[in-house]
């Protein structure tokens, strides 16, 4: 495919996304029916689509329309390319710009439009992040680095970097945690490497690793990962100490890969059903990596930025409060409740903790931490609550 044809395809997929189709579904549907597209074409179309989703408002402003075509015109203008060079109408390239399109388009207005945020959420972002808001929004407009976690129970990160180099993958020490590694070349081949099959590393963002590295742990403790999902944090915690480790999720199917991942990493994890928890309590540490807006990871999942609504954010806050009160009784006296989100919003972070403490006098905040994409990984929040 020519560069112009790739853009035309991206515009078509973006139209489907604007009509409500999930980007991954639209991309898979296109790839299935486009056998002519090689792997480089697929990667390029995917990159265009995700770049446009990260920068949807500013590209629509520059391109003069919130359509697939407008977004791709905006994308080119943003990178300083004259759209006329690719919108030629030749072969499978998009049709030349009309006179109206030539003159449409303007620099995005400062604030929510330039920061590529919905208007309703911008005040929440600025209140939560203060003078970092614009820089964080700018960071979220760009691709996230590829980061992995060295399984420190097996090898240090320097050894993992050397093993990856032998398999043709270029990596260097990453930010925020001793286990973090950033991959600069060969990232698409990571999960096909021998090192991955041997449990030497896992795919994991550096801030997610930092959350796990910040929770104080001791050998022999009983730890419950209450919202385990695929088990990314379960495994990162398991690598830090000899734990009696339990994983739970309200949707147990989300944990279906966890036994295989745990075996690959060489760590024992017991999957538990909610009804078994009272009999297994108390736990020394309970981690609640609660469902949230995902605003800290909007670089990786930019659709979330546009699909989130104020009603959904309200629902999430209720779920977060409910999870805190559900797990409180599972924590041993003097034990720790670790509350984590990948959100940048105070409404899902410190506000939830303050509300919990106000209604539960037997608890105190031992520490809380916030990471933003300016620190080098996704945005995350962690509060450590001690049962007194
Ligand atoms: C942010 S994800 C967890 C990600 C996971 N900890 C990781 O590091 O890969 C939140 C998880 O909470 C689960 N969840 C939602 N509501 C819950 C509830 N009331 N109790 C327990 N888990 C819940 C979801 O099914 C989802 O898997």
From TrEMBL:
UniProt cross-references to PROSITE patterns, sorted A to Z: SAM_MT_RSMB_NOP
InterPro entries (alphabetical): MeTrfase_RsmB-F_NOP2_cat (IPR049560), MeTrfase_RsmB-F_NOP2_dom (IPR001678), RCMT (IPR023267), RsmB-like_ferredoxin (IPR054728), SAM-dependent_MTases_sf (IPR029063)
Top class in the EC scheme: transferase
Positions annotated to bind S-adenosyl-L-methionine: 249, 273, 289
GO molecular function, one term: RNA binding
Keywords (A to Z) from UniProt: Methyltransferase, RNA-binding, S-adenosyl-L-methionine, Transferase
EC number(s) from the headed UniProt entry: 2.1.1.176
Domain SAM-dependent MTase RsmB/NOP-type: 136-388
Active-site feature positions: 342
Entry-linked Gene3D superfamilies: Vaccinia Virus protein VP39 (3.40.50.150)
Biological processes, Gene Ontology terms: RNA methylation
PANTHER family reported in the protein's UniProt record: NOP2 YEAST -RELATED NOL1/NOP2/FMU SUN DOMAIN-CONTAINING, RIBOSOMAL RNA SMALL SUBUNIT METHYLTRANSFERASE B-RELATED
Family recorded in the similarity comment: Belongs to the class I-like SAM-binding methyltransferase superfamily. RsmB/NOP family.
Protein name: Ribosomal RNA small subunit methyltransferase B
Originating species: Pseudooceanicola algae
């Amino acid at each position: 495919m020519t560069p112009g044809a790739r853009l035309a395809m991206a515009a078509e997929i973006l139209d489907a996304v604007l009509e409500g189709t999930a980007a991954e579904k639209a991309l898979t549907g296109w790839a299935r029916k486009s056998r002519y597209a090689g792997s480089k074409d697929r990667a390029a179309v995917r990159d265009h689509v995700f770049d446009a989703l990260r920068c949807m408002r500013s590209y629509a402003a520059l391109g003069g329309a919130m359509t697939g075509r407008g977004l791709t015109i905006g994308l080119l203008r943003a990178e300083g390319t004259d759209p006329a060079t690719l919108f030629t109408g030749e072969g499978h390239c998009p049709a030349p710009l009309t006179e109206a399109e030539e003159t449409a388009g303007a620099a995005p207005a400062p604030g929510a439009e330039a920061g590529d945020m919905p208007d309703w959420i911008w005040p929440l972002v600025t209140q939560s992040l203060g003078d970092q808001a614009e820089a964080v929004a700018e960071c979220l407009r760009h691709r996230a680095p590829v980061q992995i976690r060295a399984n420190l129970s097996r090898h240090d990160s320097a050894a993992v970097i050397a093993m990856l180099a032998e398999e043709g993958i270029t990596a260097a020490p990453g930010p925020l945690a001793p286990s973090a590694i950033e991959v600069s070349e060969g990232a698409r081949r990571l999960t096909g490497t021998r090192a991955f099959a041997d449990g030497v590393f896992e795919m994991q963002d550096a801030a997610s690793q930092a959350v796990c590295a910040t929770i104080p742990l001791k050998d022999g403790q009983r730890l419950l990962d209450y919202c385990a999902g695929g088990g990314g944090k379960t495994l990162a915690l398991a690598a830090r100490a000899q734990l009696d480790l339990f994983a739970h999720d309200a949707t147990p199917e989300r944990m279906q890969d966890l036994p295989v991942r745990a075996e690959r990493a060489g760590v024992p994890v017991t999957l538990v059903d909610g009804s078994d928890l009272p009999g297994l309590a108390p736990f020394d540490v309970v981690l609640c990596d609660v469902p949230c807006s995902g605003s800290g990871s909007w670089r990786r999942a930019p659709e979330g930025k546009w699909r989130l609504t104020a009603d959904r954010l309200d629902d999430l806050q209720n779920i977060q409060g409910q999870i805190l009160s559900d797990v409180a009784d599972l924590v041993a006296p003097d034990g720790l409740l670790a509350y984590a989100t990948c959100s940048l919003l105070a409404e899902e972070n410190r506000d939830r903790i303050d509300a919990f403490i106000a209604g539960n006098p037997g608890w105190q905040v031992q520490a809380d931490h916030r990471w933003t994409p300016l620190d080098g990984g996704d945005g995350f929040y962690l509060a450590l609550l001690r049962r007194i």
